[in-house]
Specification:
- The protein contains three helices and no strands.
- It has 61 residues and is mainly α.
- The chain has one domain.
- α1 packs antiparallel against α3.
- Keywords: Membrane, Transmembrane, Transmembrane helix.
């Protein structure tokens, strides 16, 4: 679960960096195509981590 959370955060930060880089560049259209893919990776790995967390047996139960 921790690696999935790490991947989600890294992909989200990379997506923000790509958008920030694209705003300062002339050829922004090709660079901006990477942002939705990084968002998809972040969303998918975050949801997978949430599913794993919800399926685990609670230590407090």
């Amino acid at each position: 679960m921790i690696p999935l959370c790490f991947l989600a955060v890294i992909a989200a930060v990379a997506g923000l960096l790509v958008v920030g880089f694209a705003l300062g560049t002339a050829g922004a259209s090709m660079i901006l195509l990477a942002a939705p893919m990084l968002g998809l990776v972040s969303l998918t790995s975050g949801l997978a981590a949430a599913v794993l967390a919800l399926r685990r047996k609670s230590v407090f139960a």
